[in-house]
Write a structure and sequence with these properties.
462 residues, mainly beta, 9-stranded antiparallel β-sheet, globular, disordered N terminus, YJL171C/Tos1_N, EC 3.2.1.39, glycosidase, YJL171C/Tos1_C
């Protein structure tokens, strides 16, 4: 049942279905899916806002206190330290984090004229800020949509505008209306793959909104190779890690972390199986995590009283810093095989996502007042299955600029998917890209430029 809506909202609801039909999107399991893609770009990411930061967790009263915490700058709040989270079924074969050495050429901001020139040279679609301009027989299409998000009584969001209309996943109820903008690349070919055989055009949804100025937060990384333009500060392959700490939510069960009747299990060191707790840090083994199980990765740097970036964290936990800085690259290689034998909760719904690292250090699941999540400190879903058994991986952002896309990556049930996630503060973009290159100790600007070019950079947004 919808809440009472304005005439504008009702018009948005009515136009939504028509727009999706015109866009050749399909509706499955409560979600819309449009075109298969190998690259998504969130543009105009970053805002000035205040979220509620946890300042204390009182075991005697089972209550948490919060205080205003202000963020600003390009990519805020994702320029703060982030933890990396995984849900099974998943096998992680590689993970790494890179930071720029000095001023990397790959982070030089492209002008709108350069983008249009590049698109014209490749015979690809050129995007107007006012409307879509499509060319026939193109391999890649760049889409920009401005829309308004409305929230219905069940928590579902509906977005609408005069040129394109989309429906997105649920968002916190505090976000009742958000203006958002998306730029993404979607792949449509003359001989589409089975996963996208019914798709003939690109459709999109909302992604990122208002911008702000200064950048904050420092990176948490160990010393590494400096021969390239980007140094690998953290790296993992099964059985071996450098500057990575694997954790899960098994606190108090196996020698690390705590449990209480108020707040339940805290985070703990993860054992090599990824599922059990451990007394000390261990490298994840060569394992496939079953459905419903989760683990997370922090850096190898412990929090201390001198680490302002860590903020408050629950007493008695193994507290480690996340991966900070406005400019950074996460790389992944993973498989997401089908699995119906695990937990019925989130069964066969694998996911990889980022959280503000303050969230798991207080309370990832539970009382909303014991986490900054609800008030917008930041979550970014990189690759998420929304319905059991689906083969379509969706991306979405949850913060003050809540938005996402209904275009999807193909789930790697057989074989693996290699991907890079590039945080580029100079033009306020976040790129999620399928890649083929090796994840060496350093990356050259040429490689990163190729990745950015493949994803396509947005024109400057108003």
């Amino acid at each position: 049942m919808l809440q009472k809506l304005s005439i504008t909202a009702l018009i948005g609801l009515l136009s939504s279905a028509a727009s999706f039909a015109n866009a050749d999107c399909t509706y499955s399991g409560g979600n819309y899916y449009c075109a298969q893609t190998d690259a998504i770009v969130y543009s105009n990411v970053g805002l000035s806002s205040t979220y509620q930061d946890v300042t204390n967790m009182d075991e005697s009263s089972c209550a948490c206190t919060q205080a205003d915490f202000t963020v600003s700058g390009s990519l805020a709040p994702f320029n703060e330290e982030l933890s990396v989270h995984f849900r099974g079924p998943i096998e992680l074969l590689q993970f790494g984090v890179y930071y720029p050495n000095g001023e990397s050429k790959a982070l030089k901001k492209r002008s709108e004229e350069q983008l249009i020139e590049s698109c014209n040279e490749q015979g690809e679609a050129v995007v107007s800020r006012q409307k879509h301009q499509h060319k026939r027989d193109v391999a890649v299409e760049y889409v920009q949509v401005t829309s308004t998000v409305y929230v219905d009584g069940s928590g579902e969001t509906v977005t609408a505008d005069s040129t394109n209309t989309v429906v997105g996943p649920a968002v916190p109820s505090s976000y009742t209306q958000v203006s958002t903008v998306l730029s993404n690349t979607a792949k449509t070919s003359a001989t589409p793959s089975p996963a996208s055989s019914s798709k003939t055009t690109t459709a999109s949804s909302a992604a990122a909104g208002s911008s702000s100025s200064s950048s904050s937060s420092s990176s948490s990384s160990s010393s590494s190779s400096s021969n390239g333009d980007w140094s690998r500060g953290s790296y993992f392959v099964p059985g071996s890690t450098s500057n990575c700490t694997f954790m899960n939510n098994e606190g108090g069960s196996a020698g690390s972390g705590v449990w209480s009747s108020c707040f339940g299990n805290s985070i703990s060191f993860a054992a090599s199986d990824g599922t059990s707790g451990a007394a000390s840090a261990q490298a994840l083994g060569d394992v496939t995590l079953a459905s419903g199980n989760e683990f997370m990765i922090f850096s190898g740097d412990e929090c201390s009283a001198n680490n302002a970036e860590c903020g408050y964290y629950r007493e008695g936990i193994p507290a480690y810093r996340g991966f900070g800085g406005a400019d950074k690259i996460f790389v992944f290689e993973f498989s997401m095989p089908s699995d119906t034998s695990g937990s019925a909760y989130n069964q066969d719904m694998p996911a990889i996502w980022l959280l503000n690292a303050k969230i798991p250090r207080t309370l990832q699941y539970g009382d909303a007042s014991c986490s900054c999540w609800k008030t917008g400190c930041g979550e970014m879903d990189l690759f998420e299955i929304l319905t059991a058994g689906s083969d379509k991986l969706i991306s979405h952002i949850h913060d003050g600029q809540d938005g996402g896309t209904q275009d999807y990556f193909d789930r790697p049930t057989d074989g693996t998917l290699k991907a890079a996630v590039i945080f580029n503060s100079s033009d306020e973009t976040i790129h999620i890209i399928e890649v083929d290159e090796s994840f060496d100790e350093s990356l050259s600007d040429d490689v990163v430029d190729q990745w950015l070019s493949k994803a396509g950079s947005s024109a400057a947004l108003p």
